[in-house]
Design a protein that fits this description.
The protein is α+β, with helices and mostly antiparallel strands. It contains 17 helices and 18 strands.
Length: about 475
Amino acid sequence: MIGQDIIARFDVLLGPKWVVTDPGDIAPWVSDWRGRYHGAAAAILQPESTEQVAAAVALAAKLGIPLVPQGGNTSMVGGATPPADGSALILSLRRMNRIRNLSPEDNLALCEAGVILSNLHDAAAEAGRRFPLSLGAKGSATIGGLISTNAGGTQVLRHGTMRALVEGIEAVLPDGSIFHGLDALRKDNRGYDIKQLLIGAEGTLGIVTAASLRLVPAIAARAVGWVGVASPADALTLLRLAEARLGDSVEGFEIIADDGLGHVLSHIPGTRCPIETRTPWHVLIEIDHGDLNEPGPAERLEATLADALEKGIAIDAAIAANEAQAEAFWRIRESLSESEKAQGPALQYDISVPVARMPAFMVDAAAAAERSFPGTTASSFGHLGDGNVHFHVRAPKGTSDGPAWIAAEGQAINAFVHDAVVAAGGSISAEHGIGQMKRAELGRLASPARLHALRAIKAAFDPQGIMNPDKLIPRPEEG
């Protein structure tokens, strides 16, 4: 454990008010969102500026004290949970929550790491722009965490992940130096791209303190549809039809198994199935227009869905009649994780495979998992258009002790699912990161070249190993 003499030195840097030591105040921040990982920390450091972050990191480097950067603590893989032995301090970016500048002319927002995603959405909307990344945790996820995990969400099909949306970065490196990279340069050939190394690094190479983010024009009009289909293969055929008919106006394309829809309807008050027919699979599609030229998005989507129904690609379809109904459609999608969690113990996988192989994977891997682990049920939902779905294997009905079931079956199920993903040419992490949950599996499955590169970069940036220890980088015994 870290003694009071060390904490007193951070008090001098930040002021005692901003070094939290009360166990009750610390408790909510030492467990992950899913409640699977539990750590300990003697204090939470709460700097309010990049300079204070730099001073805190420099002192930590001098003392050899590990730091765990933390934003909204919404990590799905234990990526922001401190070690259980209390050997690290949490460094919270939540006070660094200013939007320093938002320029509609430049289509850029300069945000500090602690800015909550939904607050950025609101600020951009007031300026007639939008930040085109959204996800279920938008009310608590922070910009720094989204960058550090290279978050995706529901609009990747059109706009890409955070890698495509970050134009510049400011960060504090493990020695306490500040990387000044906020200038949004479209061309910059000064060697290695430090910005891209920090995106997706999960805080293991430094602490992102601010970023220049790309904005896009506000939506003038949109149409949101719900389509029932027989299979993921039909869903992919529908996507290709929509792309051919609607071009790059296709903003979102989400696939949901009918059992996942059922979980939402039973768990979330006020939700209802958007179509009259309950089909094996469902698609949520949104198309957006930046102008109001005719025909409008609703007309174009209606014509496309009529074509899909005529060709037998779709079974039933509905288009939201107004914004409230459109939001109700999206509420179903955004409630899936919460509803799945309420069904009982489960193992959740955030995976990607090549888009063309995803329909077969969704069906075949689920059936194979259920055969291999009798009593379990498996299904998936997510972003079919970019090859990323969330694949869940639920414990047998009546399982009361989730941790015991995970302890007994988790390793075997993990290996089974991840082996299937790799066999399909995919990745065991599409948008949530590796954290500590997938670290050993990355070590087992990654190529020697990838592991060597990851470890070499980590050692070069952080030779003391003080940045977010035991996350992302497999230990030597793990691969």
